[in-house]
Description:
alpha/beta; single chain; binds pyridoxal-5'-phosphate; 5-stranded parallel beta sheet; globular
Amino acid sequence: xxxxxxxxxxxxLDFADTLLAGLADDGGLYVPESWPVLGDGGRGDxxxxxxxxxxxxxxxxxDGGAFAAMVAxxxxxxxxxxxxxxxxxxxxxxxxxxxxxxxxxxxxxxxQLVSRLFxxxxxxxxxxxxxxxxxSGDTGSAxxxxxxxRETVDIVILHPAGRVSEVQRRQMTTVASDNVHxxxxxxxxxxxxxxxxxxxxxxxxxxxxxxxxxxxxxxGRVMAQVVYYVVAAERLGGRQSPIAFSVPTGNFGNVFAGxxxxxxGLEVPQLVVGSNSNDVxxxxxxxxxxxxxxxxxxxxxxxxxxxxxxxxxxxxxxSGRDGAAVGVQLDDFRSSxxxxxxxxxxxxxxxxxxxARFHDDEVLTCIGDEADxxxxxxxxxxAVGVLAARACRRDxxxxxxxxxxxxxxxxxxxxxxxxxxxxxxxxRLADLHERSERLTALPDDLAIVQDFVRSCRRGA
Length: 460
Ligand SMILES: *Cc1c(COP(=O)(O)O)cnc(C)c1O
């Protein structure tokens, strides 16, 4: 399996090089040269299906036995034997819980595996990297938890100061490992993401510190997320039966993985994109336009995003894989803040996508109502997806799966406001508020942040 950039101007790479590269050096994102075809099998066993679904993407690049062992090890630490169990909501919508990993958010599913793949490949090559990432909350803690104490990796995570929840910040800043560094940037998540992109676009710097990324732009993350779409189908009627999903969306990595499952042959007639008040994406799916506005803080901070990086992968697909055209269109979007789909691109979006946006008052009402009716406590991100599932569902004869992306205890203030009860942290995080924090506050200034990153490298 080989990977090409969505901007069409970077070398074609194998899986291991794609994994370590993160962003392509032409500014694009890597995607497979062609989509593999999903087989018929699958019994709903998470690890077994994971190895089968991901193997074609990994190709000859990683030894098969070593890969299977890494997959098993990545999910052994999850709190639930099914890894991602499915429960039923009050109106028969299925809720797939993706939050049983170490940091209580779905990002653990990808990052627990990706960090093992990094360590494996870097040790084999005798190399080390500096991972730099931007987080609106959950990526950071999941990346830090996955990379802590790994010999081959130093990790620096930027978060927007004051814009992540207390639990989210503490999950990052209380990790006492030499290779872990947290930076609070005076700015928004998009500012953090722009700093990371600028560091990658600075080629001498990138090579000096051997920069790498585990942001949701990393192909390894998308690949690992394809698995639970297939597992859900297996558990709810088999791979041959149609199934719909609703996904609370920020950077578009999660729902794009659902589209990859569809491109690989899973019958997914509908993917629903749920947004909070930051609804740039909803408008994209409703009328093909995007107009960037200010980021509005909401109760679902991991979705407080205006520019969804992974949308570039979908644009590439619906543009006949014309990387040069995608590059021009996105550069124009960056500079003007406005985007309009070309008529030819609209054809690729005509079917199979829906989008809906919900404000915080609707989200809190949904959490309260669901607690009353079924006793199931939703976190605010998950509630956006559940609301979108209900609003957009087209065919009641097809199972609709809403993805639960965070444990309610990650967002205790919103959940308490909605239900009157504060959700308890699970055992392994019970003393989180007593642990001591470590972080560095920096301005939104590329040169200063780059100097800090240089200072974090061990063995440099
Ligand atoms: C990251 C995150 C999202 C958004 O996922 P994307 O892949 O960025 O679309 C939604 N919910 C939670 C809890 C998250 O952590």
